[in-house]
Design a protein that fits this description.
There is one protein chain. The protein is about 35% helix and about 15% strand. By secondary structure, the protein is α/β, with parallel strands linked by helices. Strand 10, helix 9 (about 215-225) and strand 11 form a beta-alpha-beta unit. The mean pLDDT is about 95.
Length: about 325
Protein backbone atom coordinates (compact mmCIF):
# COMPACT_ATOMS: atom_id res chain seq x y z
CA UNK A 1 0.00 0.00 0.00
CA UNK A 2 1.25 3.52 -0.77
CA UNK A 3 2.51 5.77 2.01
CA UNK A 4 1.54 9.44 2.09
CA UNK A 5 1.97 12.29 4.57
CA UNK A 6 -0.69 13.33 7.07
CA UNK A 7 -1.19 16.64 5.21
CA UNK A 8 -1.68 14.79 1.92
CA UNK A 9 -4.30 12.52 3.49
CA UNK A 10 -6.24 15.57 4.67
CA UNK A 11 -5.93 17.21 1.24
CA UNK A 12 -7.18 14.08 -0.50
CA UNK A 13 -10.17 13.87 1.82
CA UNK A 14 -11.20 17.47 1.15
CA UNK A 15 -10.55 17.33 -2.59
CA UNK A 16 -12.40 14.06 -3.10
CA UNK A 17 -15.45 15.36 -1.28
CA UNK A 18 -15.35 18.73 -3.06
CA UNK A 19 -15.30 17.00 -6.46
CA UNK A 20 -18.49 15.15 -5.54
CA UNK A 21 -20.41 18.01 -3.97
CA UNK A 22 -20.18 21.61 -5.16
CA UNK A 23 -21.77 22.84 -1.93
CA UNK A 24 -18.49 22.14 -0.11
CA UNK A 25 -15.92 24.92 0.12
CA UNK A 26 -12.76 25.65 2.13
CA UNK A 27 -12.01 28.96 3.81
CA UNK A 28 -9.37 30.24 6.18
CA UNK A 29 -6.18 32.22 6.50
CA UNK A 30 -3.67 31.49 3.71
CA UNK A 31 -5.55 28.42 2.42
CA UNK A 32 -5.60 29.65 -1.20
CA UNK A 33 -2.77 31.77 -2.64
CA UNK A 34 -0.19 30.49 -0.14
CA UNK A 35 -1.37 26.85 -0.50
CA UNK A 36 -2.08 26.64 3.21
CA UNK A 37 0.02 27.64 6.23
CA UNK A 38 1.02 23.96 6.56
CA UNK A 39 0.54 23.12 2.85
CA UNK A 40 -2.54 21.03 3.59
CA UNK A 41 -4.52 22.79 0.84
CA UNK A 42 -1.66 22.85 -1.68
CA UNK A 43 -3.00 22.89 -5.25
CA UNK A 44 -6.64 23.18 -4.24
CA UNK A 45 -7.04 26.79 -5.41
CA UNK A 46 -5.82 25.79 -8.88
CA UNK A 47 -8.35 22.95 -9.05
CA UNK A 48 -11.42 24.48 -7.43
CA UNK A 49 -11.01 28.22 -7.95
CA UNK A 50 -11.30 31.25 -5.71
CA UNK A 51 -15.03 30.79 -5.03
CA UNK A 52 -14.44 27.44 -3.30
CA UNK A 53 -10.97 27.93 -1.77
CA UNK A 54 -11.19 31.27 -0.03
CA UNK A 55 -8.48 33.30 1.67
CA UNK A 56 -9.76 35.25 4.67
CA UNK A 57 -8.53 38.19 6.75
CA UNK A 58 -6.99 37.47 10.15
CA UNK A 59 -10.43 37.65 11.74
CA UNK A 60 -11.50 34.26 13.11
CA UNK A 61 -14.83 35.39 14.54
CA UNK A 62 -15.75 37.10 11.25
CA UNK A 63 -14.99 34.34 8.77
CA UNK A 64 -16.33 31.63 11.10
CA UNK A 65 -19.60 33.55 11.30
CA UNK A 66 -19.77 33.68 7.49
CA UNK A 67 -19.18 29.91 7.30
CA UNK A 68 -21.78 29.12 9.97
CA UNK A 69 -24.33 31.26 8.16
CA UNK A 70 -23.49 29.48 4.90
CA UNK A 71 -23.96 26.10 6.58
CA UNK A 72 -27.39 27.12 7.82
CA UNK A 73 -28.35 28.08 4.28
CA UNK A 74 -27.53 24.86 2.46
CA UNK A 75 -23.75 24.94 1.94
CA UNK A 76 -21.18 22.68 3.62
CA UNK A 77 -18.12 24.74 4.67
CA UNK A 78 -14.73 23.55 5.87
CA UNK A 79 -13.11 26.19 8.08
CA UNK A 80 -9.34 25.96 8.60
CA UNK A 81 -7.92 27.64 11.67
CA UNK A 82 -4.18 28.31 11.55
CA UNK A 83 -4.25 26.93 15.09
CA UNK A 84 -7.09 26.04 17.43
CA UNK A 85 -5.55 28.53 19.86
CA UNK A 86 -6.84 31.25 17.51
CA UNK A 87 -10.25 29.58 17.25
CA UNK A 88 -10.96 30.80 20.78
CA UNK A 89 -11.78 34.11 19.09
CA UNK A 90 -14.52 32.32 17.15
CA UNK A 91 -15.90 30.36 20.10
CA UNK A 92 -19.07 32.46 20.11
CA UNK A 93 -20.00 31.12 16.67
CA UNK A 94 -18.93 27.54 17.48
CA UNK A 95 -20.57 27.39 20.92
CA UNK A 96 -23.52 29.75 20.71
CA UNK A 97 -24.55 29.24 17.10
CA UNK A 98 -23.22 26.13 15.36
CA UNK A 99 -23.63 23.71 18.27
CA UNK A 100 -27.05 25.00 19.39
CA UNK A 101 -28.88 25.83 16.17
CA UNK A 102 -30.47 22.42 15.60
CA UNK A 103 -31.86 22.38 19.15
CA UNK A 104 -32.94 26.04 19.16
CA UNK A 105 -34.76 25.65 15.82
CA UNK A 106 -36.61 22.55 16.90
CA UNK A 107 -34.72 20.45 14.37
CA UNK A 108 -35.51 22.75 11.45
CA UNK A 109 -32.06 24.31 10.87
CA UNK A 110 -28.88 22.25 10.96
CA UNK A 111 -25.25 23.31 10.65
CA UNK A 112 -23.18 20.88 8.54
CA UNK A 113 -19.72 22.37 8.98
CA UNK A 114 -16.18 21.17 9.72
CA UNK A 115 -13.82 23.28 11.82
CA UNK A 116 -10.28 21.96 11.43
CA UNK A 117 -6.65 22.86 12.09
CA UNK A 118 -3.63 22.09 14.30
CA UNK A 119 -4.20 21.72 18.02
CA UNK A 120 -2.03 21.47 21.12
CA UNK A 121 1.68 22.05 21.46
CA UNK A 122 4.21 22.15 18.63
CA UNK A 123 7.48 22.77 20.43
CA UNK A 124 8.67 26.12 21.69
CA UNK A 125 5.70 28.27 20.66
CA UNK A 126 4.90 29.76 24.05
CA UNK A 127 1.86 29.49 26.27
CA UNK A 128 -0.63 31.22 23.96
CA UNK A 129 0.01 28.82 21.07
CA UNK A 130 0.22 25.50 22.90
CA UNK A 131 -3.20 24.62 24.34
CA UNK A 132 -4.97 21.34 23.56
CA UNK A 133 -8.73 21.88 23.20
CA UNK A 134 -10.33 18.44 22.85
CA UNK A 135 -11.84 18.37 26.32
CA UNK A 136 -13.05 21.99 26.05
CA UNK A 137 -14.87 21.37 22.78
CA UNK A 138 -16.13 17.91 23.76
CA UNK A 139 -17.87 19.52 26.72
CA UNK A 140 -20.25 21.30 24.29
CA UNK A 141 -23.43 19.36 23.39
CA UNK A 142 -24.10 19.47 19.67
CA UNK A 143 -20.45 19.24 18.58
CA UNK A 144 -18.58 16.14 17.43
CA UNK A 145 -14.85 16.12 18.19
CA UNK A 146 -12.34 14.06 16.19
CA UNK A 147 -8.62 13.80 17.01
CA UNK A 148 -6.78 11.28 14.78
CA UNK A 149 -3.20 10.05 15.04
CA UNK A 150 -2.45 8.52 11.61
CA UNK A 151 -2.84 9.57 7.96
CA UNK A 152 -5.20 6.62 7.38
CA UNK A 153 -7.51 7.65 10.21
CA UNK A 154 -7.25 11.32 9.30
CA UNK A 155 -8.48 10.78 5.74
CA UNK A 156 -11.28 8.39 6.60
CA UNK A 157 -12.54 10.47 9.49
CA UNK A 158 -12.30 13.82 7.68
CA UNK A 159 -14.40 12.45 4.82
CA UNK A 160 -16.95 11.26 7.38
CA UNK A 161 -16.87 14.68 9.08
CA UNK A 162 -17.48 16.53 5.81
CA UNK A 163 -20.49 14.32 5.08
CA UNK A 164 -21.89 14.64 8.59
CA UNK A 165 -24.89 16.90 9.11
CA UNK A 166 -23.66 18.14 12.50
CA UNK A 167 -20.82 20.57 13.28
CA UNK A 168 -17.53 18.70 13.68
CA UNK A 169 -14.31 19.93 15.29
CA UNK A 170 -11.37 18.16 13.66
CA UNK A 171 -8.20 18.34 15.75
CA UNK A 172 -4.88 17.88 13.96
CA UNK A 173 -1.27 18.39 15.08
CA UNK A 174 1.30 20.70 13.57
CA UNK A 175 4.10 18.27 14.37
CA UNK A 176 2.34 15.39 12.62
CA UNK A 177 1.65 16.93 9.20
CA UNK A 178 4.79 15.36 7.76
CA UNK A 179 4.21 11.92 9.31
CA UNK A 180 3.74 9.23 6.69
CA UNK A 181 1.48 6.21 6.84
CA UNK A 182 -0.33 3.70 4.67
CA UNK A 183 -3.43 5.08 2.95
CA UNK A 184 -5.28 3.09 0.27
CA UNK A 185 -5.96 4.71 -3.08
CA UNK A 186 -9.54 3.47 -3.14
CA UNK A 187 -12.20 5.41 -1.27
CA UNK A 188 -13.01 4.55 2.34
CA UNK A 189 -14.85 6.12 5.26
CA UNK A 190 -14.22 5.61 8.99
CA UNK A 191 -17.28 5.76 11.20
CA UNK A 192 -17.26 8.61 13.69
CA UNK A 193 -17.36 7.40 17.28
CA UNK A 194 -15.31 4.20 16.96
CA UNK A 195 -12.00 3.76 18.77
CA UNK A 196 -9.27 1.57 17.28
CA UNK A 197 -7.04 -0.96 19.03
CA UNK A 198 -3.62 -0.11 17.61
CA UNK A 199 -1.81 -2.82 19.57
CA UNK A 200 -3.18 -5.96 21.21
CA UNK A 201 -2.15 -6.81 24.76
CA UNK A 202 -3.16 -8.72 27.86
CA UNK A 203 -1.67 -7.05 30.96
CA UNK A 204 -2.71 -3.39 30.88
CA UNK A 205 -4.81 -1.07 28.70
CA UNK A 206 -3.28 2.23 27.59
CA UNK A 207 -5.69 4.76 26.05
CA UNK A 208 -4.61 7.86 24.12
CA UNK A 209 -5.28 9.96 21.02
CA UNK A 210 -3.66 12.41 18.60
CA UNK A 211 0.12 12.81 18.93
CA UNK A 212 0.18 11.31 22.43
CA UNK A 213 -0.39 7.97 20.69
CA UNK A 214 3.34 8.07 19.95
CA UNK A 215 3.98 8.14 23.69
CA UNK A 216 1.49 5.35 24.33
CA UNK A 217 2.89 3.09 21.60
CA UNK A 218 6.47 3.93 22.58
CA UNK A 219 5.73 2.98 26.18
CA UNK A 220 4.12 -0.28 25.05
CA UNK A 221 7.26 -1.15 23.08
CA UNK A 222 9.46 -0.48 26.11
CA UNK A 223 7.18 -2.48 28.41
CA UNK A 224 7.28 -5.44 26.03
CA UNK A 225 11.05 -5.68 26.60
CA UNK A 226 10.27 -6.35 30.25
CA UNK A 227 7.55 -8.90 29.60
CA UNK A 228 4.56 -6.57 30.09
CA UNK A 229 1.93 -6.80 27.34
CA UNK A 230 0.10 -3.48 26.83
CA UNK A 231 -3.04 -3.10 24.76
CA UNK A 232 -3.07 0.38 23.18
CA UNK A 233 -6.36 2.02 22.19
CA UNK A 234 -6.57 5.10 19.97
CA UNK A 235 -9.79 6.96 20.78
CA UNK A 236 -9.79 8.77 17.39
CA UNK A 237 -13.13 10.38 18.34
CA UNK A 238 -13.47 12.26 21.62
CA UNK A 239 -17.19 12.98 21.24
CA UNK A 240 -18.96 10.64 20.81
CA UNK A 241 -16.63 8.67 23.09
CA UNK A 242 -16.29 4.94 22.43
CA UNK A 243 -16.05 3.82 26.03
CA UNK A 244 -17.40 0.37 25.11
CA UNK A 245 -14.10 -0.58 23.46
CA UNK A 246 -12.22 0.55 26.58
CA UNK A 247 -14.52 -1.47 28.86
CA UNK A 248 -14.02 -4.64 26.84
CA UNK A 249 -10.25 -4.15 26.99
CA UNK A 250 -10.27 -3.52 30.74
CA UNK A 251 -12.32 -6.69 31.24
CA UNK A 252 -9.35 -8.52 29.72
CA UNK A 253 -6.39 -6.59 31.18
CA UNK A 254 -7.92 -5.38 34.48
CA UNK A 255 -5.82 -2.21 34.43
CA UNK A 256 -6.16 1.17 32.72
CA UNK A 257 -3.71 4.02 32.07
CA UNK A 258 -4.73 7.10 30.04
CA UNK A 259 -2.21 9.38 28.30
CA UNK A 260 -3.34 12.77 26.98
CA UNK A 261 -2.11 16.29 26.27
CA UNK A 262 -4.98 18.00 28.09
CA UNK A 263 -4.67 19.84 31.37
CA UNK A 264 -5.72 17.48 34.18
CA UNK A 265 -8.83 19.22 35.52
CA UNK A 266 -12.07 18.08 33.78
CA UNK A 267 -10.06 16.45 30.98
CA UNK A 268 -10.85 13.61 28.58
CA UNK A 269 -9.18 11.21 31.01
CA UNK A 270 -11.49 12.44 33.78
CA UNK A 271 -14.53 11.40 31.74
CA UNK A 272 -12.99 8.05 30.81
CA UNK A 273 -12.05 7.31 34.42
CA UNK A 274 -15.60 8.07 35.59
CA UNK A 275 -17.18 5.94 32.86
CA UNK A 276 -14.90 2.94 33.35
CA UNK A 277 -15.24 2.88 37.13
CA UNK A 278 -19.02 3.03 36.65
CA UNK A 279 -19.24 0.33 33.98
CA UNK A 280 -16.28 -1.93 34.82
CA UNK A 281 -15.38 -1.36 38.47
CA UNK A 282 -15.47 -5.07 39.34
CA UNK A 283 -12.90 -5.82 36.65
CA UNK A 284 -10.26 -3.38 37.92
CA UNK A 285 -7.30 -4.81 39.83
CA UNK A 286 -5.67 -1.41 40.33
CA UNK A 287 -6.75 2.24 40.40
CA UNK A 288 -7.17 3.95 37.03
CA UNK A 289 -4.14 6.16 36.40
CA UNK A 290 -3.53 8.96 33.93
CA UNK A 291 -0.67 11.05 32.56
CA UNK A 292 -1.59 14.57 31.45
CA UNK A 293 0.18 17.80 30.68
CA UNK A 294 1.24 19.90 33.67
CA UNK A 295 -1.50 21.96 35.29
CA UNK A 296 0.05 25.19 34.02
CA UNK A 297 0.62 27.14 30.80
CA UNK A 298 3.35 25.62 28.63
CA UNK A 299 6.30 28.02 28.68
CA UNK A 300 8.89 28.62 25.97
CA UNK A 301 12.03 27.28 27.65
CA UNK A 302 12.94 23.81 26.32
CA UNK A 303 13.40 22.31 29.79
CA UNK A 304 9.90 23.51 30.75
CA UNK A 305 8.46 22.13 27.50
CA UNK A 306 9.97 18.75 28.38
CA UNK A 307 8.62 18.91 31.92
CA UNK A 308 5.16 19.90 30.67
CA UNK A 309 4.30 17.07 28.26
CA UNK A 310 3.72 13.35 28.97
CA UNK A 311 6.72 11.15 28.15
CA UNK A 312 7.44 7.50 27.44
CA UNK A 313 9.45 6.98 30.68
CA UNK A 314 6.67 8.60 32.70
CA UNK A 315 4.10 6.30 31.09
CA UNK A 316 6.25 3.21 31.64
CA UNK A 317 6.62 4.15 35.31
CA UNK A 318 2.86 4.56 35.82
CA UNK A 319 2.11 1.28 34.06
CA UNK A 320 4.55 -0.54 36.32
CA UNK A 321 2.84 1.04 39.32
CA UNK A 322 -0.58 -0.29 38.30
CA UNK A 323 1.10 -3.64 37.60
CA UNK A 324 2.67 -3.50 41.08
CA UNK A 325 6.08 -4.09 39.50
CA UNK A 326 8.81 -2.69 41.78
CA UNK A 327 11.60 -1.85 39.36
Amino acid sequence: MRQIAFREALREAMSEEMRKDDRIFLMGEEVAEYNGAYKVSQGMLAEFGAKRVIDTPIAELGFTAIAVGAAQNGLRPIVEFMTWNFAVLALDQILNTASKMLAMSGGQVGCPIVFRGPNGSAGQLGAQHSTAFESTLANIPGLKVISPSTPYDAKGLLKAAIRDNDPVCFMESEVMYGDKGEVPEEEYIIEIGKADIKRKGTDVTIVSFNKMMKVALGAAAELEKEGISAEVIDLRTIRPLDWHTIVESVKKTNRLVIVEEQWPFASVSSEIAYRIQKEAFDYLDAPIRRITSADAPMHYAPNLVEAYLPTIPQTVKVVKEVMYVKK
